[in-house]
Amino acid sequence: MRVAPLGAYFADDLGRCAAEARASSLVTHTHPEGVAGAIAVAVVAAMAWQLRGSPHAERPRKFFDEALRLTPESEVRRGILLATQMPPEIPLREVAKALGNGSLVTAPDTVPFCVWMAAHHSDNFVEALARTIQVGGDCDTNAAIVCGIVALSAGREGIPPDWLKARERVQV
Q: What's the whole-model pTM score?
């Protein structure tokens, strides 16, 4: 859930992005599914950064294509493949029922849903957050993943100014 900044940092080289996401995930998630989830999220975050100025309608397919290309064979990858078949107008409860909502606290039960949410709400940070937590499950993890990705495409101006003022100061 903390890998989106890595995706932004390596956005110009998706292969390196996937390799660095794998390396970073091995520190805390040695299970192959956790590693696959980190790779998928980092790659989608990189795509969000790359496509931030492109038309919203082009983004979902490119998010999914690159995530599928670089995510290793896994339940996470199979969930993302299923997510490609779910149109944006499908009710969220159905999406969560098919893809998971994090209730099982596993990458296969979290990442496909989060990728779907980010892909279809990449231009609206507030809506992405609200709709993500609406389905329940592991709300804080899901929101961290989705918002980490969406912030990269919606940009700072997509985050309400009051929210920016209320955040903790970054200590350098």
A: 0.94
